[in-house]
Specification:
The two termini are about 50 Å apart. By secondary structure, the protein is of the alpha+beta class. The relative contact order is 0.09. A hairpin with a 7-residue loop joins strand 17 and strand 18. It contains eleven helices and 30 strands. Keywords: Calcium, Metal-binding, Repeat.
């Protein structure tokens, strides 16, 4: 979850929980007229993407290095989460790379920068922005809305980096997106050799022309580029393969691209594929091209292969017997679907809700109005408020509307021994209650029958729900996911066992929500919410997934019930998808709706 709002900020409805991801956004970057920092050749540019987090700029990704090119189109696609409600500050910095030394950060290597946000490009320079940001009073430009934004690059102290510009093209990725894995090769490509009179290749060093010996036996160094042709006939670079040296029949490494990037999830969208002969000075020689669609590419699935003639239009016009400049073959195509939370829900996955209530003595005597368990006929206590707020959301995803309700930390009849996982309806064979109202009634009826005691041990209940989830996992279907809501008034006393139980549970279809009730110091509970670091078992084993969300209820005393539910359930859709993706379980086929017998026949 994200950090709390700072002093003077408007408090968010849920300071600990993450904002729901509206979508993911892909950013493509290109530059023009970059400064030339090299003496012998042109600059070798690379783009760094930085994101501001808690006032600090952190590098999150970087592009490939493009050799000797002042007008680079980077193949790297940056993917960022887009939160509508939040200002997400980004910074793009362009540097001149130096071979194996990598990307430097010295002023001499800096080709320019531009600061922006995911939602908008900041063109002004409010207080605190770097001195090389654009000058004030230039307005705002919506990246997401405009899709394509071109802005000047700036050096330090607000100085323009010559005529350098950077272009950011954004595209939202739909939640239904998947990706495709492609494997290409080529056969009998044209041999492109650059000659100068006398059989030498020309190169510059300062102002002197140097003639370098050309290997008589060298062949083309081919690489492949794939472009998507958009509705406005513009071309977007989708992928650039590696260079295969000295080979007219190269086999390129398989690669993966999202269907959104490749074809905007439209099978019939036209694609342009271009084969080049690599040149270290950036002046690549055109070998040939072909056009295709993703629909046509899919013929390569299984044992089949698809091939295209690689055509050079100039040769086709000039040469009477011209056939092609080689053949490009798609050896294999694999489609990997990425499913969304709704895909699983609509496929019939049920959310099974279990509530566990703290009945330790620290809550106070339920007969006393100061007790956290006091039943006020005019107003629900904090336990009931949290239970109803979360349960009413979960019940919409459970067809039978039956919820398991457990208690811990109390002496229970008939022997009044301490139990840490008893059914509050006192039915050991069936701990389920009919709907949220059934849980409320069982809670109210059990209070006079038990003795509040202790300690606050929650590991037994986590393990109990985990055993049921483990049985579900064995079905190898996305049929049931378990949410355990733990309501407690203090820090757990079996922290080591709880950490161990959570690590085990992270491998199962379940999530854990812990709501701290009352005014206790819950600082130590934050360790269970793995947002400040990876939660580990006492033996050092990390959780597979972050499945715990902890929230103190006191932060929602004056908020609506929906604010608490939104906060504690914000991570659940992501956790559901993460689990089933890890297990490679697709959604089940949706079942046809069952007619409601209470409804009459249509008139």
């Amino acid at each position: 979850p994200r950090a709390p709002a700072g002093m003077g900020d408007v408090p968010e409805p849920c300071p600990q929980a993450p904002l729901a991801v509206l979508s993911k956004v892909e950013l493509r970057v290109s530059c023009k007229h970059l400064l030339d920092r090299d003496t012998l050749n042109k600059s070798d540019p690379c783009v760094l993407l930085l994101m501001q987090s808690q006032g600090q700029w952190m590098e999150v990704d970087r592009s490939e290095v493009i050799k000797s090119n002042l007008n680079p189109v980077f193949a790297k696609i940056f993917t960022v989460d887009y939160y509508f409600e939040e200002v997400q500050k980004l910074r793009f910095e362009v540097y001149d790379s130096h071979g194996q030394a990598g990307v430097g950060t010295h002023d001499d290597d800096f080709l320019g920068g531009m600061e922006c946000t995911v939602g908008q490009v900041r063109l002004g320079t409010p207080p605190g922005t770097p001195p090389w940001c654009p000058l004030p009073n230039r307005g705002l430009s919506q990246i997401v809305a405009q899709k394509r934004v071109t802005k000047p690059l700036f050096l330090k102290y607000g100085k323009f980096a010559g005529k350098s510009t950077i272009t950011i093209i954004s595209e939202e990725i739909s939640g239904n997106n998947g990706y495709v894995e492609l494997a290409f090769r080529a056969k009998k490509l044209d041999d492109k050799v650059s000659w100068v009179p006398g059989g030498h290749r020309a190169g510059w060093a300062g102002l002197c022309l140097i003639l370098l010996p050309q290997d008589l036996f060298s062949k083309s160094d081919p690489f492949l580029e794939i472009y998507r042709i958009d509705d406005d006939r513009s071309e977007q670079l989708v992928y650039r393969t590696e260079v295969v040296k000295n080979n007219l029949s190269p086999i390129w490494e398989p690669f993966k691209v999202s269907l959104n990037s490749l074809c905007s999830c439209e099978e019939k969208r036209k694609l342009r594929c271009v084969v080049w002969d690599y040149d270290s000075r950036g002046k690549h020689d055109f070998i040939g091209e072909f056009f295709t669609t993703f629909e046509e590419m899919q013929k390569a699935m299984g044992e089949n292969k698809v091939q295209w003639d690689c055509m050079n239009p100039k040769y086709k016009i000039k040469k009477r017997n011209y056939k092609n400049s080689g053949v490009v073959v798609l050896l294999d195509l694999k489609i990997h679907r990425v499913y969304s939370f709704l895909d699983y829900i609509m496929g019939g996955c049920q959310i099974h809700f279990t509530v566990a209530i703290d009945f330790t003595a620290s809550n106070g005597d339920p007969r006393n109005s100061c007790s956290l368990h006091y039943i006020n006929p005019y107003q629900p206590n904090e336990y009931l408020k949290a239970l109803v707020a979360v349960g009413e959301i979960c019940q919409d995803y459970d067809s039978d509307k039956k919820f398991s309700a457990l208690g811990f930390g109390a002496r229970i009849p008939p022997k009044y021994e301490v139990s840490h996982d008893f059914a509050i309806n006192f039915n050991p064979d069936n701990d389920e209650c009919e709907g949220i109202q059934g849980v409320v009634e069982s809670y109210q009826s059990c209070l006079p029958k038990i003795q509040l005691y202790g300690p606050t041990n929650v590991a037994p209940i986590i393990s109990k729900v985990a055993r049921v989830a483990a049985d579900e996992e064995r079905t190898k279907e996305a049929s049931q996911y378990f949410i355990l809501l733990i309501l407690t008034d203090g820090v757990v006393t079996d922290m080591a066992d709880t950490r161990e139980a959570i690590v085990r549970a992270s491998y199962l279809p379940m999530s854990i929500i812990i709501v701290g009730v009352g005014n206790a110091d819950f600082t130590d509970m934050q360790i269970l919410d793995g947002d400040d670091g990876v939660l580990r078992s006492p033996k050092g084993e990390p959780v597979l997934r972050d499945i715990v969300q902890f929230v103190p209820f006191r932060e929602f005393k004056n908020a609506s019930p929906t604010a608490l539910a939104k906060c504690v359930l914000a991570e659940v859709p992501k956790q559901v998808v993460e689990y089933y993706s890890y297990k490679a379980f697709p959604p089940r086929c949706p079942r046809p709706p069952t007619p409601d017998p209470s409804l009459g026949s249509p008139q």
